[in-house]
Specification:
about 230 residues; alpha/beta; Rossmann fold; seven-stranded mixed β-sheet; 8 helices; globular; binds S-adenosylmethionine; methyltransferase; Euk-Arch_PrmC-MTase; SAM-dependent_MTases_sf
């Protein structure tokens, strides 16, 4: 069941070329709110985009927030949004690997790219205002960033640390749970939401049907938040 919280993302805007907060961003903010996981803790937001998750973490009382993104425009956008919101977020250019070097953190939150990507994805016509392809493209199985994030969870986190990740069922929720558990964490889905396909999934639906990833005619996906706790 999904519990809806006030729309914390509404005041955070994305500049051109940066992923605008969407339902997955909101679901991750709801998970932070519901669990109370970030309050008083050192938080890393990996794949920060506009900084919406990092800013929400700071607003929820995180002790410190460090945010990482591979896109310089996103880092600039997140820095500006945090200043506008009057909260402290240290936004840096970097990947999960840079978070690993800067860590460990008490809490790692992430809304990574997780959309399965066809070899012909470069031919798709997707409206520019949806953001850059690097915000969602994640290899044929959608796990290009999810795999290293899950596999390095134990090293990213302090003892008793928490990871919160949002992803789609189409990037294999069970695989994330398995990888996190193999890394020695307790992991479970704590929130889920069924949403209609947006422009990217719509553009990919025929390919996903062809390779058997999507039942023919289905045009909605379940997004989930996984909570993983380091023992
Ligand atoms: C789906 S967007 C999420 C943005 C924001 N956290 C939100 O929830 O609205 C994914 C972001 O991850 C960034 N990204 C892609 N690959 C990355 C990587 N390997 N390491 C860090 N950031 C990455 C993209 O530039 C993009 O800003």
């Amino acid at each position: 069941m999904t519990i809806l919280y006030p729309d914390l993302q509404s005041s955070v805007a994305a500049t051109a070329g940066v992923y605008a907060p969407q339902q997955d961003s909101q679901l991750l903010i709801e998970a932070m709110t519901l669990t109370g996981a970030v309050t008083g803790r050192r938080v890393a937001d990996v794949c920060t985009g506009s900084g919406v998750i990092a800013i929400a973490a700071a607003q929820l009382g995180a002790r410190s927030v460090t945010a990482f993104d591979i896109c310089p425009k996103a880092v600039q956008c997140a820095t500006g949004n945090a200043a506008d919101a009057g909260v402290g977020v240290d936004a840096r250019l970097g990947t999960w690997g840079d978070a690993l070097e800067a860590g460990p953190f008490d809490v790692v939150v992430s809304n990574p790219p997780y959309v399965p990507t066809s070899p012909d994805a470069h031919l798709e016509e997707i409206p520019a205002d949806v953001g850059p392809a690097t915000a969602w493209n994640a290899g044929v199985d959608g796990r290009q960033v999810l795999n290293p994030l899950c596999d390095s969870a134990a090293d990213l986190l302090t003892g008793s640390g928490t990871m919160l990740i949002v992803q789609s069922e189409f990037s294999d929720t069970e695989q994330s749970l398995r990888r996190l558990r193999s890394a020695g964490l307790d992991a479970e889905v704590i929130l889920s939401q069924l949403i209609p396909f947006g422009p990217v999934m719509t553009a990919r639906a025929a390919w996903m049907e062809r390779i058997g990833m999507l039942p023919v005619g289905r045009r909605e996906e379940e997004i989930v938040v996984i909570q993983a706790e380091k023992r």
